[in-house]
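Lab notebook, bench 4. Continuing the backlog of folding jobs that were queued last week. Each job is logged with the same field layout so the records can be merged later without manual cleanup. Today's entry covers TLDc domain-containing protein, a 277-residue chain. Filled in by technician R.K.

JOB TYPE: sequence-to-structure
TARGET: TLDc domain-containing protein
LENGTH: 277
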Amino acid sequence: MNGGITNLFNYGNIYFVSTPFKEFQGSNDSITKTTSFDILNNKNIKTQEKCHENQKIMKEEIQEDNNIQKESKDELEVKKEKKEIQKEENINKRKGIDMKNIENEKYFIGIPIIEKSFFHKFYEPLKEWTSKQTFKLIYDSNSDGLTACSFNTLLKGKENILLMVFTKKGYVFGSFHSIIPNDKSMISNDLNHFLFSLSSPYLTEPTKFIGNGILHLHDDSEDNNVIDIFSGYSIYSNNTVMVYSSFDATYHSDCKNFVGKSNSKVIITKFIAFECM
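JOB STATUS: finished
OUTPUT FIELD FOLLOWS
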């Protein structure tokens, strides 16, 4: 070689020199300038590329893990729902209720299969009281929101409406209304109106209460109140209901049959409305 190589270093498996050198003796080409900085710089670039590649692989693995976890979660939800349905079927078998008939019946529209057995038990009294054959779910506070606005939006102007309240302690009661007003107003003298109880420790069977309670709707902007049936009950947006002490005089029965007490708010788990047809 032309010119001596000075300071030859071994960096891992890479050899480099600290001074320029001519690659072949007698070559007329210009001297190739290669420095330790050039070699290290190339190594850094390759290292960065490798890091980026590793990061990409890690992101793909994390995404794949997330997808697997999501699928597992969905599978668990499906299994949970199937387990609940099976549990309900076993209960119905012990009670002599045919689950297939419940699934196939079309009297309650919009109700999940898992809940149909409950409503199926009360179909006959509800049909008798309302003189209607079919009940279509058009409002559910758990999915539509428990506000005056959501209630009004879905029910204003509707006819033959069955309202139903479920309390945390297991009371189930409600009311029937021939018509829901189109705006913030009150409706009285509804000849077909009545209150009812489907589940109460104070009653041995579903019971209908005749009276002349006044239905009152609130403005959409109302924050606290949802609806009132004067001398009956009021629903509030904080998931509570209150039965009035005047229930006794208007509907000719003890108000404890509804929620066990009067003039005191009780927690509810759901408030729904059926359109009766």
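OBSERVATION: Residues 140 and 239 are 13 Å apart (CA to CA).
SIGNED: R.K.
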